[in-house]
């Protein structure tokens, strides 16, 4: 009987020791486990601080809408003060909201200064619609400080009475002056009522 008790006691001591060693090893493994994100380093992590689905932003002045932007999604890059939007659509409200200009493109890059918009660059099938005029180009930039829209490449403007084609464009937004800079071709239609 003594031998049996001694064996049982010895077995319990060995099991307790193995259990204790197992607990210590598992704690040690958990403590030494590395974070895969920290191993990658900050250079490999996405720089987007925020990603927003169904993005919408409205600029109000004295209770009235100045402009509105919607997009499928947006990514905010805090270090660059930039918002990159996919499939943006902007509406500028002119003359107290009585007229609207619609702008769209494949991708947009908004540069912001706090809550203020500094510039917007639209890339890919950029379209601007104002009244009966439609302007199309591959890239256009709006500079808020100068209230100026520029397009460096080929530009097409179509309207009920005219078609314009050129390379390079400047639009002074406030006075609504449009300048095509070079290689300008114009077609004027006198029968605008039929088109």
Please characterize this protein's 3D structure:
The chain is of the alpha+beta class. The chain folds into two domains: 2-32; 45-194, Lipopolysaccharide (LPS) transport protein A like domain (lipopolysaccharide transport protein A fold, Sandwich). The chain contains two helices and eleven strands, in the order ααβββββββββββ. The chain has helices at residues 2-32, 36-40; strands spanning 50-61, 64-77, 82-86, 89-94, 99-104, 107-113, 116-130, 133-143, 148-158, 162-172, 177-188. It has a six-stranded antiparallel β-barrel with strand order 2-3-6-7-5-4. The longest helix has 31 residues, at 2-32. It is elongated, with a radius of gyration of 32 Å. The N and C termini lie far apart (113 Å). Residues 36-45 have low confidence and may be disordered.
| Total domain count | 2
What's the story with the biggest beta sheet? 6 strands, antiparallel, barrel
CATH-scheme architecture of the largest domain = Sandwich
Shape: elongated
How are strands sequenced across the largest beta sheet? 2-3-6-7-5-4
Alpha carbon gyration radius: 32 Å
**N-end to C-end Cα span:** 113 Å
Give the tally of β-strands.
Answer: 11
* Count of DSSP-assigned helices: 2
Task: Return the structural class.
Answer: alpha+beta
Share of residues in helices: 10-25%
* Strand percent estimate: over 45%
Question: How confident overall, as mean pLDDT?
Answer: 79
